[in-house]
Amino acid sequence: MAGGKCLALIAHDQKKDDMAAFARANRDILSRWKIVATGTTGGRVLDAVPDLNVTRLKSGPLGGDQQIGALISTGEVDALIFFVDPLTPMPHDVDVKALMRLAIVYDIPMALNHATAIKLLPTLKA
């Protein structure tokens, strides 16, 4: 993914509406970024804001979380916003934990809920 800053967006199923609303409310800032997203989340974001530059990867449980993790480890993702649903069991929980671990290891900004994403967004330089 050559050129420009890249932001990863992910949302668990119960948080996808929140992510779509977040994208709609922050379209001006997000429009300055290349965005990678897991499959369904990326589709919901594009439905909400069709003019964003979103590359959809695989669905999280089908490898999308790992694809974003790989992009983090190669320096191609500069920040991660992941709306996590802590109240619903996730069959791919180990992938989610691995993704968070990579964001920590590679020291990229990471927001795991709406409140933190709102605080993080203005600090990101596109």
At CATH level 3, the topology is Rossmann fold
Report the uncertain regions: none
The shape, in one word, is: globular
Structural class label: alpha/beta
- Rg over CA atoms, rounded to whole Å, is 13 Å
Instruction: Please state the second-level CATH architecture.
Output: 3-Layer(aba) Sandwich
Question: If you had to describe this structure to a student in words, what would you say it looks like?
Answer:
The chain is of the alpha/beta class and 126 residues long. The chain is 43% helix and 17% strand. Helix 1 crosses helix 3 (39-48) and helix 4 packs parallel to helix 5 (93-105). It is globular, with a radius of gyration of 13 Å.
Quick structural gist:
By secondary structure, the protein is an alpha/beta fold.
Which features does this protein show?
126 residues; alpha/beta; 6 helices; 5 strands; globular
List the helices and strands and how they pair.
Blueprint: E1 6-11, H1 16-25, H2 27-30, E2 34-37, H3 39-48, E3 53-56, H4 64-73, E4 79-83, H5 93-105, E5 110-111, H6 114-120
Parallel strand pairs: 1-2, 1-4, 2-3, 4-5
